[in-house]
Amino acid sequence: MKFPVDVNVGGRLSERLAAQGHDVRQVAGKDPGMLDEEVLNWAASEQMCSHWNERRRGR
Predict the structure, then answer these.
(1) What is the DSSP letter of 3?
(2) Between residues 57 and 10, which one has the greater pLDDT?
(3) Does the predicted model carry a pTM greater than 0.85?
(4) Which of 22, 39, 23 is nearest to 31 (CA)?
(5) How far apart are CA 42 and CA 40, in angstroms?
(6) In Å, what is the CA distance from 24 to each residue of 21, 40, 57?
(7) CA dist list (Å): 58 to 2, 25, 32, 55
(8) What is the CA radius of gyration of the chain?
(9) Cys staple from 28: which of 8, 24, 32, 53, with CB 3.0 to 4.6 Å?
(10) CA-CA distances (angstroms) from residue 41 to 18, 21, 28, 46, 54?
């Protein structure tokens, strides 16, 4: 599977996915300033599997 990995995701997850044979695409390598909507559009255009884990401070 192909996964986009956003700039706020730790390297451990990327390494683990890659070690399991997944195609890991770093958002930082494409455009570190991409908005969430742009990441989703990019993922859809490349048929990547997206997963979101939003953490909001102060909640």
Answers:
(1) E
(2) 10
(3) no
(4) 39
(5) 5
(6) 9, 15, 27
(7) 32, 30, 24, 9
(8) 12
(9) 32
(10) 22, 24, 15, 9, 18
